[in-house]
Amino acid sequence: MYRKILCYGDSNTFGYDPRSYLGGRYPESIRWTTLLEQQGWIVFNAGENGRSIPRHEWEIESVLQMIYQLEPDIVTIMLGSNDLLQSPSLSAEECASRMDHFLKCLLEKPLPCELLLIAPPPMTFGAWVNDSKTIKVSRDLPRYYQAAADRLGTHFVDSGAWDIDLTFDGVHFSEAGHLTFAKQIIKYLTTCFCPQ
Which has the closest alpha carbon to 98: 43, 144, 153? Predict the structure, then answer.
């Protein structure tokens, strides 16, 4: 039975509270990773504010070393929003190409785990997002991610189908968003990795 999970992602995995200007987090009782832990999973939260998809060899190697050290059963990867915010000209296809490269590099090595690619929920207009192009690209991203996952044989889920509530900035999960995400990811993991 799968029980050890490494959650690799950005601020929405870290549990960032956008009401904090110093990188503060929601209380543990709110974060989706903690809620997953309360369901019996051993969770390693590897979320980091501002993280984009690893592209450099040293970044990818650090992820591999983390996997080898922790030996999780599953690694969830939810990234891409920062790539789109930091590079407004980036297309959904180009962002997915970055993810494809990252996953390929991981899969070139013998891994003790399965990979689950999670498409982040699409962004909305807010304090961090003021152009419709970025929103459209974030909405298009899941289908390109799914194509990459299909090619590489990794698991995939689109969290955009979960109706995740975002805060005033249009990017980060609200408290309600964390609760919804937790409920849906627990359901997905239970169904796909721990069938009764």
Answer: 144
